[in-house]
From TrEMBL:
Organism name: Actinopolyspora xinjiangensis
Gene3D superfamilies associated with the record: 3.40.50.2300
GO biological process, one term: regulation of DNA-templated transcription
Top-level taxon of the source organism: Bacteria
Name of the protein in its database record: Two component transcriptional regulator, LuxR family
Gene Ontology MF term list: DNA binding
Domain HTH luxR-type: 172-237
Cross-referenced PROSITE patterns: HTH_LUXR_1 (PS00622), HTH_LUXR_2 (PS50043), RESPONSE_REGULATORY (PS50110)
4-aspartylphosphate: residues bearing it: D79
Residue ranges constituting the Response regulatory domain according to the UniProt record: 27-144
Keyword list, A-Z: DNA-binding, Phosphoprotein
């Protein structure tokens, strides 16, 4: 008998298809550069341990790739924006190593270009950080089973982009292009009516930093106030 037959198996890890138990909890690895957010996700998913189990977490691209390769989770919850390359870089490096894992993007951003970038990189779904713990556990189980998971609005971005061809995911907008990703995140929340304090809490930045980003956006767009910014963002489908 092969010695490997006596080795204990981890039902929460990815593994081969014949080893999977549909009733076993799905092994999850969390990738996000904000430690506080990772702690929050762990706490939310802890209520659903019979369905999902957090195997580990990482706050950088290099740490994420090493952890995924070592732990072989079934599903990776992947932040889109990180200082050292973001979700797209994690996807690229993990694919290069031939590691089989399903990626579910979990981001504050619901911008079309962010959604399309990670889906083209190989992610199986994309949900935003407004999702509840129960909904997130359901999304994890679904992508692990082979489903693609998006909110209706985000699914529309993907359908539009892929139905119109590989070059249609993003139409150039010089005014929008001059904004940084973080400025777009702040603008999106501002246009939805969030206060500076609420924006800071959502993006894990200080109120002072929010004010700095808003001032920069106003200067770059040559607009005067948040009401003009809201209309400007709505016209570009950022809201």
């Amino acid at each position: 008998m092969d010695e490997r037959d006596d080795e204990p198996r981890n039902p929460a890890a990815g593994g081969e298809a014949e080893d999977k138990d549909v009733d076993a909890p799905v092994g999850v690895y969390i990738v996000d550069d904000h430690a506080l957010f990772r702690t929050g996700v762990r706490a939310e998913l802890a209520s659903f341990e019979e369905r999902v189990r957090v195997l580990g977490e990482a706050g950088s691209v290099a740490e994420a790739v090493a952890g995924i390769e070592h732990l072989r989770p079934a599903v990776v919850l992947l932040d889109v924006h990180m200082p050292d390359g973001g979700g797209a870089e994690v996807l690229r490096r993990v694919r290069e190593r031939g590691v089989a894992a399903v990626f579910l993007a979990l981001s504050v951003s619901d911008a079309a270009e962010d959604v399309i970038t990670v889906i083209r990189g190989g992610a199986r779904g994309y949900v935003t950080k407004t999702i509840s713990g129960r909904e997130l556990a359901d999304a994890i189980r679904r992508v692990a089973a082979g489903d693609a998971v998006f909110s209706p609005r985000l699914a529309g971005f993907v359908l539009d982009a892929f139905s119109q061809g590989p070059d249609s995911a993003r139409v150039s907008d010089p005014e929008l292009d001059q904004l940084t990703r973080r400025e777009r995140d702040v603008l999106r929340l501002l246009a939805r009516g969030y206060s500076y304090r609420e924006i800071g809490s959502e993006l894990f930045i200080s109120v002072k930093t929010v004010e700095t980003h808003v001032s920069s956006v106003l200067r770059k767009t040559q607009l005067s106030n948040r009401y003009e910014l809201s209309k400007w963002a709505s016209d570009r489908r950022l809201v």
